[in-house]
Amino acid sequence: MRTSWLTIGFMVFSVLLTGCWDKAELPEYGFVQGAAIDENRVGDTELTTLFYKPGGGGMESHMAAKGGPSSFQVKTTGHSVFEAIRDIPIHLGRKAKWDHMRVILVSESLAKSQGLGSVLDFYSRDHEPRGTILVFITEGEARKYISIKPFIENTMAQQLKRIQETASRFSSKTVKTALINIALQIKSETGFGTVPYLRFHGEDATVDGIAVLKKGKMVDLLTSNEAQRLSMLTNDYESGVIDLPCSKNDSGQHFEDESVEVFNSYTTSEMKIEGETLTVHYITNIEGAVGEMHCSTIKTREQEMAFTRKVEKKVVQEMRELVRHLQQRKVDSLGLGNKVYRQHLKLWKRWKPDWEERFAHVKFEFDVRVVLRNTGTTSGRSIAK
After folding, report:
1. Strands 240-244 and 247-248
2. 97 — pLDDT class (breaks 50, 70, 90)
3. At what angle do helices 224-233 and 301-329 cross, to 10 degrees?
4. How far are the Cα atoms of 81, 193, 279, 283 from residue 37, in angstroms, in the given order?
């Protein structure tokens, strides 16, 4: 009797197992790696979709063996992104499959005129694209970047994905922003957000700074150096390099910069509200080691303290320059308004209507503390001396 019940149970369980119920075969799909979105002269959407060409049997494996391309592009145009997407099958003969997509590139002009919220609405709404797709804003036309031949990766989309991930992790000269982050930024109390900015460096693409968004539209651009200090103040800094100029040549230009490699950076902030005045005090603790040494000597405790004070002074100076830039443009990329909302809800309801003007008058204090773990050598001075 027990055996009969087990048999019935297994039969019911096997019926409930998932399978290929929709009967869709792999040859019916084209697997998307990336998309570049531009706007033509008449205002229509120009979509350049990068597809991965798998190495299967027949001609595909023959091309792969001979070093043939592993990807190809399909260009379509429509009054909307969705219409441009629906035109892909009339060129490709397959339906675009979006769940393996790596990156989305949006031109700067489109990000300024329409905003990412409008441009990326389909990818946020459709069930296939994932919220982890990385987003870039490009200098000039987006399609030009997706056409570059990758160095190591199989497709340019995969290379751009790796660039954004590693650049934010090892240099902190940009941020890592995915599709889900865009939606959260737009819906935040202040509406400000940040997206990596992509531009050409010769014939290659490089992430150079951060595009600042307000309700999804690009309103400002931060340099790679400003991006590092922003990451420090928002406590998103992972690792990077701090340059210290030694001296100046006859033309007044710095040369032979010394450098410190940052292993760890941890920042806390304290808000003090007195009447209508907001003061924010940042405390940043940095651990690092000497990367290059040209004009300094570290052999005694006093010399080490002098060197760390030099680093602290340089970081504070750059933080002040960043904050001055943000306040002049009235862009709260630091997320202070969102913090006021979380901690002082009643006050935020009164401050929110004119927050941008209030942000421009916030007072800032900086306290940077540097701990030097080693100098890289036992001599404590330049090896050229």
Report:
1. unpaired
2. very high
3. 100
4. 8, 20, 41, 41
- Residue 23: left if φ>0, alpha if ψ -120 to 50, beta else—which one? left
| SS3 state at 138 | strand
Residue 117 in contact with residue 182, Cβ under 8 Å? yes
pLDDT tens digits for range 326-363:
999 999 999 999 999 999 999 999 999 999 999 999 99
Distances (CA, A) of 323 to 15, 142, 170, 213, 217: 62, 30, 23, 16, 21
Distance CA 84, CA 78 (A): 4
**Residue 244 near residue 260, CB atoms below 8 Å:** yes
| Cα 352–Cα 353–Cα 357 angle in degrees, nearest 5 | 90
Contact 197, 111 (CB under 8 A): no
Contacts of 257 (CB under 8 A, 6+ apart): 243, 244, 245, 246, 292, 294
What phi and psi values does residue 353 have, to the nearest 5 degrees?
A: -55, -35
**The two three-digit tokens of residue 334, written as one number:** 């630091």
Residue 19, pLDDT above cutoff 90 = no
Between strands 204-214 and 192-201, the pairing is antiparallel
E strand spans, the chain: 29-39, 45-52, 71-78, 95-97, 103-107, 134-138, 192-201, 204-214, 217-222, 240-244, 247-248, 254-255, 258-274, 277-292, 363-374
Report whether 242 contacts 288 (CB < 8 A): yes
The model's pTM is 0.86
Lookup result for tokens 């199989």: 154
Q: Output the pLDDT for position 56.
A: 46
Question: Token pair of 33, please?
Answer: 């790696």
Residues in the chain: 385
